[in-house]
Amino acid sequence: MSESPLDSLSPRRRVSVSPRLFLLFVVALVLLYGVIYPNIHVVVASFQQNGTWSVANYIQALSQPIVLESILASVGVSVLTVLLCAAVGIPLAFLFERYSFPARRVFAGLAALPLVLPPLVGTVAFIFLCGESGILARFVQSVFHLDHSPWSLRGWPALLLFHTYTMYPFFYVLTGAGLTRIDASLAEAGRSLGASRTRVVTRILLPQLTPSLIAAALLTFMTSMASFSAPLLFGGGVRVLTLEIYTARQRGDASLAITETVILAAISLSALFFFQRYEGTRRFAAAAMKGSTKKRQPMAHGGVRSLAIVCGILFSLLLVLPVATLLLVSFAREGNWTTQTLPSAYTFANYVRIFSDSRASEVFLNSLSMSAIAAGAALLWSFSVAALLARKGSRKLKRLLSWLILVPWALPGTVVAVAIAESYGQPSLLLGSFILVGTFWILPVVYFLRFMPLVVRAVQASMEQLDATLEEAAASLGASWWQRFRRVTLPLVWPGAIAGTLLAFVIALGEYVASVLVFVPTNRPVSIAIASELRDFNLGTAAAYGVVLMLMIGVIMTIAARLERARA
Amino acid sequence: MPLLSLKNLSKRFDKTPAVTEVSLDVERGEFFGLLGPSGCGKTTTLRMIAGLEQPDSGAISFEDTTITNLPAEKRGFGMVFQNYALFPHLNVLENVAFGLRARHKSQAEIMERVKSALELVQLPGYEKRKVDELSGGQQQRVAIARAIAIEPALLLFDEPLSNLDVTLREETRGELRELVKRLGLTAVYVTHDQEEAFALCDRISVMVGGRILQTGRPRDLYEHPAQLSVGKFLGRNNLIRAMRLSSSKSEVGEFKTLEGGHTIRIPVTEKSLVPLNQPCILAIRPEHVLVTNSNAGLENALPATVREINFAGATSSIKLDANGLILEALALEADGLSVGDAVTLALPAERIALLKDE
Question: What are the tens digits of pLDDT across the range B187-243?
């Protein structure tokens, strides 16, 4: 009754090999053009002067006090940022994860808000709120009748304050996720063995949280090293590396820019290795236990409870204020907000202007189309990579592939942009006489390189959640590699992949760090428009741009969250 | 000529051997079992048959053709997974039709074969249901329907009943064997549950530590385990350490137990000769140990004291102490006995298996 099991050499066999070879070819090609060649090019260029090999560039760079100073400043700001973010994020996560009190969910949801704020928009909002001529400063000035602004938003304190505001969510979100994973019965076991509350936290909970905390510290450190908008707009005397690279390029000092780029890349990559190695030593095998239900302890105690609510409200205000300020300023009549605490006249003119003037509105079209191209390409690319990595094959090759893909994500945007600009800014080995720099395509390419690792991670995470036996079941039913991928893997991974793609799209929409280095008049993105309006003191218009950008981001993130929920 | 034949299959994961030198033959139409404790390599063996793992050495042949390196999708074997592995994004119809679509069957043929497969597993009309709406037992039936819809040359089961509750498991067990036999299929069935293997399988290989220890019909395995570990694994057993006393020429062997110092006589066939003064094991099932009040005319009768009586529903387990030799007996009625009673126990010679000490 059976079909022969050995109708093996059906003609379809050849077809199942060729798409895989094709994928391998595409993936290798993209990595060569996007990651391998530009990075090697920059490193090689940094070791060459007048066509000969030398370390003269480094000697020259490091002999300038300003370069040494900027290295120290970058690392110093980043370390302090990590500490401050941990100090804010970890207690918040404990508060929201372990206790329940009225309106907890509202506060908990708001706490991750700064994550979706594009850095440039956040910086602008911060200036309007707490800058030396911002709302808070004017308020204090008018209350105490001061002659001049009570403070200036410049230098280390300003930078650290802003970094903490925008980056503490890394600690908050990852600690929260770590806490939900910890089996509540472990803490109960600790208590039953006579450990005090503090002892339970320090000896049981924190050690288990270590992997989450390390991951958060890594993200915070890398983001802070790559930070550009905040140092540019209110860093004052603090000269960080990203800023130095930008100014060196503006001055036309290409070899200094390249050398600094390599130094910045080296610091970022060593941080990545350091953290990952440390993380490896602190992984805890999750014991397979019947899950004991974890309950949030209600805060019954009246005093503590009111304190928690008051703190929650204050904290939410702190989070929402910059965004609210941006919204307010976006309706302010240009040139009308001089010495008053709040703008005195309100209008829709700013919005009308950015949408009616074609030169003002085309930046939205640019950002949307470039981000869509980059995100769409990243989606296709991620599936190619995932399909390759899902195959049984050489483990070394896979590790190399994963590592190469991670590189552009680990590198600051400045480094990626400089590497691409330097590699394809003149006739090159790989592109012949075609010069990418100066064309519309430079930004989609840079966006793709910067954000495709995010999509790859999302796709891979979905693939890891996929039950391996489903693929095996499909194989046992006679489905070829391609049929298994198309009919089993793809439909199940799709929602996670789309969510990851939307996230990449959203981040690309507000991208500024790399854009500012390589944009051209034909592809001016929103962020460049915001910066130039700000420079011309068109504060209302800059704010209006920011608000529209945030609205777009908000809508897309809502869709992504829906998808994420549909999957669960 | 066997339908499926494994020759010296070995498989290591990193440095740990999972399966070592496994050889077995499965005849056409046979319901064949792989029985062993968890981690014994039975699932790895099944996965090598399915083509989901590649053996490090050895060969698999099917209908006299070597298929050792043939990918799973070319083998045409249906497999039922422990977790069922139903595709969550497809409904019942699409799940069962999956293998047929992979074979590019016509729509009409697909519908017909899906319908008859669902009827065979007693789920007619369930085509449009989503798989997560089904109960565990129903999901299990869909998994079986999916595997038989492709009219498999061989049907592989990886502990398919272990996720069902006890009553459903016993019910499904009977239906499963009946279905496989009715369709004239050949099946290889992996389980750690001895009772399940005995009820389902025509022949069973007992695997421990990656090796096959013994292959045979369930009754033979139970009553005549070839090795101590098989005897230990299959059901409860009284294991009595003893030394051979009588000369090796005698047809009736005399053994002295190390605990209690009793003399036990059993017939010794040529095959199971045990050298003099070598320790060996005498094994007897608790249900074969007789407990009486008189010792008239009984083989191997020993005086003993009742130590414990454990009521377990239909039977009671009685723990007996015969001068330091502790034995367990099963009795349907333990009413007359109480702890401390002096009784006589008897060990019928034909029920005693002689095993080498390992």
Answer: 999 999 998 999 999 999 999 999 999 999 998 888 888 888 888 888 888 999 888
pLDDT tens track for B66-110: 999 998 888 999 999 998 999 988 899 999 999 998 889 999 999
Q: Which pLDDT does position B246 carry in this prediction?
A: 65
Please identify which residue in the block is written with the tokens 């006090």. Answer: A65
For residue A492, the distance in angstroms to the closest alpha carbon of chain B comes to 7
CA distance A197 to B143: 50
Contact A209, A178 (CB under 8 A): yes
Which among A5, A10, A483 has the least Cβ separation from residue B75?
A: A5
- In this prediction, residue A212 carries a pLDDT of 84
CA distance A134 to A220: 27
For residue A469, give the nearest of B67, B83, B99 by CB distance. B83
Which chain B residues are Cβ-neighbours of A470 within 8 angstroms?
85, 87
A477: nearest CB among B62, B82, B102:
B102
* H/E run at residue B65: strand B65-66
Task: Tell me how many residue pairs between chain A and chain B have CB atoms under 8 A apart.
Answer: 107
- Give the CB-side neighbour count of residue B295, counting CA atoms within 13 A: 12
- The CB density around residue A494, as the number of other CB atoms within 10 Å, is 17
pLDDT, tens only, B7-50 = 999 999 888 899 999 999 999 999 999 999 988 999 999 999 99
Predicted-complex ipTM score: 0.78
Phi, psi of A410 (to 5 degrees): -75, -25
**In chain B, what is the greatest distance between 2 CA atoms, to the nearest angstrom?**
76
Please, what is the average pLDDT of chain B?
A: 89
pLDDT exceeds cutoff 90 at B147 = yes
Residues of A in contact with B82 (CB under 8 A): 469
Which residues of chain A are within 8 Å of residue B65 when distances are taken between CB atoms? 6
CB burial of B73-98 (b: ≥16 within 10 Å; e: otherwise) equals: bbbbbbbbbbbbbbbebbbbbbbbbb
DSSP line for A241-282? HHHHHHHHHHHT-HHHHHHHHHHHHHHHHHHHHHHHHHHHHT
